[in-house]
């Protein structure tokens, strides 16, 4: 049950973050949703997490916090850069979709 809650909670937070980044101009909503990912993602791997050593847990925690906190800023900055490139004006949706897949 904990794994399902963690998986679907993470998925919903990430989808809402992407959707809100497209339609809302607030920079705080994706940050709040990433905090939700920080809560749900460890729930998904709870059984594996208990088997790791203390050193490995610390390294994984630091990596996780850095990655989750930088992804929304990469998405927001990438959207601004793609909007400014004249070549993508007719293909804006496809360019943003490819950018999301690459990130």
From TrEMBL:
| InterPro entries (UniProt xref) | YoqO
Q: What is this protein called?
A: YoqO-like protein
Its keywords, alphabetically, are: Membrane, Transmembrane, Transmembrane helix
Q: Does the keyword DNA-binding apply?
A: no
**Membrane-spanning intervals of the chain:** 5-22, 28-46, 58-75, 81-102
**Sections of the chain in a coiled coil:** none
